[in-house]
Design brief:
Radius of gyration: 28 Å
Strand order of the largest sheet: 1-5-6-11-10-9-7-8
CATH superfamily of the largest domain: Bira Bifunctional Protein, Domain 2
Structural class: alpha+beta
CATH architecture of the largest domain: 2-Layer Sandwich
Helix content: 25-40%
Number of domains: 2
Strand content: 15-25%
CATH topology of the largest domain: BirA Bifunctional Protein, domain 2
Number of helices: 17
Distance between the termini: 52 Å
Length: 426
């Protein structure tokens, strides 16, 4: 076998027991926070119709699809969960009680350039609210993010959330540089979303490219980039059209975040636009405070997504929270938990004649709800004790000829608890 075949495909991961223990620990926190906020879990196929993700051509995500054709059908591995959720909502749009509070924990795939915290497959926790037009939904989602961060050990100030509004950006630009070119707004967002990755000059070059979909004059392109530098909601309000509904929504959001006790960890940042074309309102991203890593999570409002699938108008907002970056951040702060197997007992027969009785003992303990490893081969007691200690077991139960003759089992309590005997049938 070629050595390359012993490795997982580049950008993907094997999960050995210790890795899976961490993943399960993290996912349990995802699910518990969702439960506490009243969300219900749903799921969908990992393979979807390719068109579900290619309806908005020109987005980076279209070029990153793992896609294939089978029996005349064009299919793709899902790169994100939101379109699948929209499809599910669309299928039952007339019979759902709104607002919906749904969550998912799913594996997603994108063939993209890898950097620290970015792989080609990742798991993602999504919370979505459907049918609520007010910013109370955004505030609830941001509160859930901070609740999760606290549960996994990240303290105040270690993660900050940057908030903006695509509606605010749209209002401002269509009253200014896009007054005569409203259709250029969505491709413009795709390009300015790359600001932190490629820099202001490169973004200006893309905005002025006469062969591109935006084609701004150089002065207007520089004005757009300057607008993205605003970090004060008051400054953004001054640049927006008078009576901006988007400014009203943002101010209300910060009032609600005060009630949740998290407003001090949320900043207005006009450069946050999110690259996906379906966002329509408030958008947000969370970063480690030192900005060493890419976004921990991100999301926003997408009120017109269901309409693009032929469904009725329905407001919606949600976020995606990946497992890769948060694992990097926990490691950065030495917060990755030491997780044992959760093994209660190890049962060891000291002779083949005693194995049937040891099996019955292990079975009885398992039926009582304990996690029990039955030693399968002929292993020396010292090796059994060493392995059990390494596995984090609580005790080892030895059953040999002497114990069988007296109808007892010898119990070694690990961690300095001593040794005693118990009745075999106790």
């Amino acid at each position: 076998m070629a050595s390359s075949l012993l490795q997982a495909p580049r950008g993907t991961r094997d999960f050995y027991p210790e890795d899976l223990r961490f993943r399960t620990w993290l996912f349990d926190h995802f699910r518990e926070v969702a439960r506490r906020f009243g969300f219900e879990e749903v799921d969908a196929p990992v393979v979807e119709h390719e068109e579900l993700f290619t309806r908005k051509a020109g987005e980076e995500i279209v070029e990153q699809l793992y896609h294939f054709e089978l029996h005349g059908r064009k299919l793709a591995l899902r790169p994100e969960m939101t379109p699948s959720i929209a499809r599910m909502v669309r299928a039952r749009a007339g019979g759902l009680r709104l607002p919906l509070r749904w969550f998912t924990v799913t594996q997603n795939w994108r063939y993209e350039r890898m950097t620290r915290g970015r792989k080609r497959e990742h798991f993602q926790w999504n919370l979505d609210v459907w049918g609520e037009p007010g910013v109370a939904a955004e505030a609830e989602l941001l509160a859930a993010i901070f609740t999760l961060l606290r549960r996994i050990g990240l303290g105040a100030g270690q993660v900050r959330v940057q908030v903006n509004s695509r509606a605010l950006l749209e209002e401002t630009l269509r009253a200014g540089v896009l007054r005569d070119r409203p259709a250029a707004f969505e491709p413009l967002c795709v390009r300015i979303d790359k600001l932190s990755k490629i820099g202001a000059d490169a973004v200006v070059d893309q905005l002025v490219d006469p062969a591109g979909p935006v084609g701004l004059p150089p002065a207007d392109a520089r004005d757009v980039v300057a607008l993205l530098g605003l970090r004060s909601l008051d400054d953004a309000a001054a640049a927006a059209p008078a009576g901006s509904p988007a400014i009203t929504d943002l101010r209300r959001l910060f009032e609600l975040l005060e009630a949740y006790g998290v407003a001090a960890h949320v900043d207005f940042d006009a450069s946050v636009v999110r690259g996906l074309a379906y966002y329509t309102g408030i958008v947000f991203e969370a970063f480690d405070a030192e900005r060493k890593l890419r976004a921990v999570c991100g999301g926003g409002r997408y009120d017109r997504l269901l309409e693009t699938l032929g469904g009725p108008a329905m407001p919606a907002v949600g976020f995606g929270f990946g497992d890769v970056v948060i694992a990097e951040l926990l490691a950065e702060h030495d917060l990755v938990p030491a997780l044992s197997r959760g093994l209660d007992d190890v049962v060891c027969a000291l002779g083949e004649a005693q194995r049937p009785a040891a099996i019955r003992l292990a079975t009885r303990l398992r039926e009582a709800g304990r996690s029990v490893e039955l030693v399968l081969g002929d292993v020396r007691p010292k090796r059994v004790l060493d392995d059990a200690d390494r596995a984090g077991a609580r005790r080892v139960l030895f059953f040999g000829p002497d114990e069988a003759a007296r109808g007892v089992v010898r119990v070694r309590e690990l961690g300095g608890g001593g040794e005693h005997e118990e009745p075999l049938e106790g």
